[in-house]
């Protein structure tokens, strides 16, 4: 985060991640000059679900129950993109009736997503009434989902080549009744919100995004269309059967938060138009392409017949993904939802890369809130419409790297201190050998630099020699306590970022407290030998450790940490 160095009265405020207006586990580090926003840094990474790697170890049917967790408010779109990718990779045809059913479900999911955007967005800027109103229509949408799929939110309804089940009897009439009722609800929202002077004061002219800026940032969905660009993948790519219906792309040219609100309100009305046309013209026929249930691999017909007749084990339909790659996208409520798929003649994808609209749209947040007021952050963030489920699913590698960077500040000082102690031991032996005028074994390796390592290795092997009359348990545990306590002392030193010691006084105190356990291990070994001379040797070693080995290491630690700081 770049903070101007010339200002001395700036204040850094932490917003989130446990804040009701954060729309998920999002954390914002905001730099303020009074009420003016100088800088804003979004911090991600609190879910760690690794959705892409899970996809690469599952078949498409096995992976479908996972995908609804990307955007749990627009679950039909995550299922649609998951089955569209292998359908295009394998050139699988979808029956006309299944395509109509898909369009109906997608537009109902778009309405549900926009409704649950509208309520919290209004609550963010101080209007509580719409937050309760939107749940009336949203529950009706979920009633339709439950009647058709059996689930209200996590449906698992789409399949490769169609859908899981046909529409139940009476569902179409019930959905048409909902469409008529919902249009009156949208009119009620417009009367309550659109011309409200307090609402207009909070959103009009706030968070303006120009045409060039929207293109350069890679925005999509209502974020892009509110800036004057008529780009809708339902018109551009003509996927499913959207080109058979009469509807208009909703767009505005001002690019502010009010424009994004108007685009989403208009999209709900257009979704109703599409649903009504699809319900009135839905054709008959199958709801799934049954040919894709054939397996590519030859199986034992007798075993298969036995499974079906007696065990009733029905293997889920799957097929090998051909060795090619493609990018598939759909127009989700929040923007372009895409998947880059690479097949490798296997039932598992070789690569499954997700392009979530929320993650891309969130990039522009620091740019929008600069030079705005603190209260405008909630307005701008709410108008972007993000879901952290799809934003944070990119944090798989970040989690791994984060673990590495947590361990680096721990093991780097340990390695440095170990090398320093070895060097000091080697220097001590050189000086003592010079004083005693002897050569001895101090010259292991070039210039004797490996002598300390040789002494340590010899010490480890000597520990295997247990005295015949000694206490084996105490004699074995003692050296471990002496060594492990020293190593554990480095784990509790409070390091900050870039290997900087957070508090030198506390760190030194904790190091002394933990490392002081080492003499106890030496005494335990001497006592466990059941030999008075060995016990005296343990006392001598403990006294030597307390007198100069621990303080000497402590000096090296303090100097090195001061140098790093």
Task: From the structure above, extract its key features.
565 residues; mainly alpha; three-stranded antiparallel β-sheet; 22 helices; 8 strands; 55% helix; 8% strand
Folded structure, characterized:
- The chain has 565 residues and is mainly alpha-helical.
- It contains 22 helices and eight strands.
- It has helices at residues 51-55, 60-67, 75-90, 96-124, 129-149, 171-194, 197-203, 211-216, 222-225, 233-236, 257-281, 301-311, 357-362, 365-369, 376-384, 388-391, 396-435, 451-462, 472-489, 504-515, 518-528, 532-564, and strands at 11-15, 27-33, 36-43, 158-159, 162-163, 325-332, 335-342, 351-355.
- Strands 1-2-3 form a three-stranded antiparallel beta sheet. Strands 6-7-8 form a three-stranded antiparallel beta sheet.
- Strand 7 (335-342) and strand 8 form a beta hairpin.
- The protein starts with 10 loop residues before the first strand and ends with a helix.
Give a summary of the structure in a few sentences.
The chain has helices at 51-55, 60-67, 75-90, 96-124, 129-149, 171-194, 197-203, 211-216, 222-225, 233-236, 257-281, 301-311, 357-362, 365-369, 376-384, 388-391, 396-435, 451-462, 472-489, 504-515, 518-528, 532-564; strands spanning 11-15, 27-33, 36-43, 158-159, 162-163, 325-332, 335-342, 351-355. With 565 residues, the protein is mostly helical. The strands form 3 sheets. The protein has a 3-stranded antiparallel beta sheet. A 3-stranded antiparallel beta sheet has the order 6-7-8. Strands 4-5 form a two-stranded antiparallel ribbon.
């Amino acid at each position: 985060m770049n903070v101007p160095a010339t200002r001395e009265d700036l204040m850094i405020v932490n917003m989130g991640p446990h804040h009701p207006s954060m729309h998920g586990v999002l954390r914002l580090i905001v730099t303020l000059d009074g009420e003016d926003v100088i800088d804003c840094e979004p911090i991600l990474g609190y879910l760690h679900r690794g959705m892409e790697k899970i996809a690469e170890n599952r078949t498409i049917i096995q992976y479908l129950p996972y995908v609804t967790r990307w955007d749990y408010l627009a679950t039909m779109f995550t299922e649609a993109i998951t089955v569209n990718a292998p359908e295009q990779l394998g050139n699988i045809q979808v029956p006309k009736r299944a395509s109509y059913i898909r369009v109906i479900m997608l537009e109902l999911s778009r309405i549900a997503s926009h409704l649950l955007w509208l309520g919290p967005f209004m609550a963010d800027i101080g209007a509580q009434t719409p937050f309760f109103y939107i749940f009336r229509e949203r529950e009706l949408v979920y009633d339709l989902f439950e009647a058709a799929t059996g689930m209200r939110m996590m449906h698992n309804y789409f399949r490769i080549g169609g859908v899981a089940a046909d529409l139940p009897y009476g569902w179409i009439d019930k959905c048409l009744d909902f469409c008529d009722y919902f249009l009156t609800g949208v009119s009620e929202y417009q009367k309550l919100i659109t011309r409200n002077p307090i609402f207009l004061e909070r959103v009009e002219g706030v968070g303006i995004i120009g045409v060039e800026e929207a293109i350069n940032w890679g925005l999509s969905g209502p974020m892009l269309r509110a800036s004057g660009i008529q780009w809708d993948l339902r018109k551009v790519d003509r996927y499913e059967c959207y080109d058979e219906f009469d509807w208009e792309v909703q767009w505005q040219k001002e690019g502010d938060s009010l424009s994004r609100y108007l685009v989403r309100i208009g999209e709900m009305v257009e979704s109703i138009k599409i649903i009504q046309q699809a319900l009135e013209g839905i054709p008959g026929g199958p709801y799934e392409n049954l040919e894709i249930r054939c397996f590519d691999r030859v199986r034992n017909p007798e075993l298969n017949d036995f499974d079906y007749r007696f065990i009733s084990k029905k293997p889920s339909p799957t097929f090998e993904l051909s060795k090619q790659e493609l990018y598939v996208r759909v127009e989700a409520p929040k923007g372009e939802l895409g998947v880059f798929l690479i097949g490798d003649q296997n039932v598992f994808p070789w690569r499954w890369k997700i392009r979530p609209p929320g993650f891309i749209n969130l990039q522009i947040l620091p740019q929008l809130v600069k030079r705005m007021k603190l209260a405008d952050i909630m307005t701008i963030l709410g108008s972007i419409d993000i879901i952290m489920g799809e934003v944070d699913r990119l944090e798989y590698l970040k989690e791994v790297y984060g673990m590495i960077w947590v361990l680096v500040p721990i093991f780097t000082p340990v390695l440095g201190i170990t090398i320093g102690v070895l060097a000091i031991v080697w220097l001590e032996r050189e000086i003592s050998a010079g004083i005693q005028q002897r050569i001895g074994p101090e010259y292991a390796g070039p210039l004797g630099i490996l002598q300390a390592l040789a002494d340590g290795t010899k010490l480890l092997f000597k520990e295997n020699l247990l005295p015949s009359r000694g206490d084996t348990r105490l004699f074995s545990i003692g050296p471990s306590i002496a060594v492990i306590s020293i190593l554990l002392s480095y784990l509790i030193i409070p390091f900050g970022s870039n290997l900087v010691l957070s508090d030198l006084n506390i760190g030194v105190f904790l190091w002394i407290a933990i490392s002081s356990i080492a003499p106890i291990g030496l005494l335990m070994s001497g006592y466990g030998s059941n030999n008075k001379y060995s016990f005296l040797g343990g006392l001598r070693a403990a006294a030597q450790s307390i007198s100069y080995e621990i303080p000497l290491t402590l000096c090296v630690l303090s100097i090195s940490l001061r140098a790093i700081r």
